[in-house]
């Protein structure tokens, strides 16, 4: 009887152990690789160093959007390319502000993803049905006010589906986006086309502008809190295509900014810029 009880405990423990390793019903919370977190590659789980396999993973926001709009709901995607042939994949994602506080609200619909929470952070991970996919989509509602830079941290498990601790690959990535300032939704009617290059920038900003009429334009660099960090130019430009090259302020830190173009009557066009 004692041997039977011991075998039963061992069998139950083994089933739980395999279930934890496969994580078909979602990753354990807190394994995105975000500040203060490990990944599922730790010892006792999948036992591998992150980002050593042949696959690549990506986070996308609203078809390559470069900023979030306070109060709006955005589509967030996580994908893995070139996974193992024995496909059993999983992911976990969290959104944090610059102080590493949980921010925004995850909105999950359908059978492929689910939410989990722990230690003041909210996560989205795969469901059992979602563990056979190579990409996942979730809705994320931004906070109602500008809280500065927000970073999405994600980890993806590319498993060989053998139920063991070895043979799996763990990948991590992140995506940082600033808030889109209010003026970014206003258009400058006389500006029919604008290109900023390169983007990311180093020190110079090159612009190619096409104007429907002669226009006086002011170019101002704005940080993610909506504060001006310097006026770049104030010029009257002719109708048609014009190219400009302007320098950013000396000592400008790397990060996300907005180039705000405004005319003499207050119309504004804003372009997101990344400085390396």
List the helices and strands and how they pair.
Elements: H1 2-22, E1 56-61, E2 73-81, E3 88-97, E4 105-107, E5 113-118, E6 121-126, E7 135-141, E8 150-159, E9 169-177, E10 191-197, E11 204-211, E12 215-222, E13 228-237, E14 240-247, E15 255-262, E16 268-275
Number of E-state strands: 16
Gap between N and C termini, in Å? 69 Å
Q: How many domains is the backbone divided into?
A: 2
Strand order of the largest sheet: 5-6-3-8-9
* The CATH top-level class label of the largest domain: Mainly Beta
Order of helices and strands: HEEEEEEEEEEEEEEEE
Helix fraction by DSSP (H/I, runs of at least 4): under 10%
Instruction: Specify the structural class.
Output: mainly beta
Identify the overall geometry: elongated
CATH superfamily of the largest domain: Reeler domain
What this model shows, in words?
This protein is mainly beta and 276 residues long. The chain folds into two domains: 175 residues, Immunoglobulin-like (Sandwich); 94 residues, Immunoglobulin-like (Sandwich). Helices cover 8% and strands 45% of the residues. The protein is elongated.
């Amino acid at each position: 009887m004692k041997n039977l009880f011991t075998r039963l405990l061992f069998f139950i423990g083994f089933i739980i152990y395999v279930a934890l390793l496969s994580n078909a019903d979602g990753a354990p919370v807190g394994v995105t690789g975000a500040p203060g977190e490990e990944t599922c590659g730790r010892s006792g789980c999948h036992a591998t160093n992150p980002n050593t396999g042949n696959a690549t993973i990506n986070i996308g926001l609203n078809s390559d959007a470069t900023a979030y709009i306070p109060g709006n709901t955005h589509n967030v995607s996580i994908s893995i390319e070139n996974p193992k042939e024995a496909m059993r994949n999983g992911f976990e994602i969290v959104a944090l502000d610059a102080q590493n506080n949980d921010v925004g609200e995850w909105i999950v619909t359908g059978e492929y993803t689910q939410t989990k929470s722990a230690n003041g952070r909210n996560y989205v991970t795969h469901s059992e049905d979602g563990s056979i996919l190579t990409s996942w989509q979730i809705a994320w509602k931004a906070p109602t006010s500008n809280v500065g830079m927000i970073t999405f941290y994600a980890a993806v498990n590319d498993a060989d589906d053998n139920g063991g601790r070895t043979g799996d690959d763990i990948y991590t990535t992140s995506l940082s986006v600033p808030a889109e300032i209010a003026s970014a939704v206003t258009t400058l009617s006389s500006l029919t086309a604008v290109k900023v290059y390169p983007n990311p920038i180093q020190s110079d900003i090159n612009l190619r502008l096409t104007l429907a009429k002669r226009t006086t334009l002011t170019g101002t660099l704005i940080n993610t809190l909506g504060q001006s960090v310097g006026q770049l130019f104030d010029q009257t430009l002719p109708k048609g295509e014009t190219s400009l090259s302007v320098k950013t302020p000396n000592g400008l830190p790397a990060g996300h900014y907005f180039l705000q173009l405004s005319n003499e009557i207050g119309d504004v066009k804003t372009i997101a810029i990344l400085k390396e």
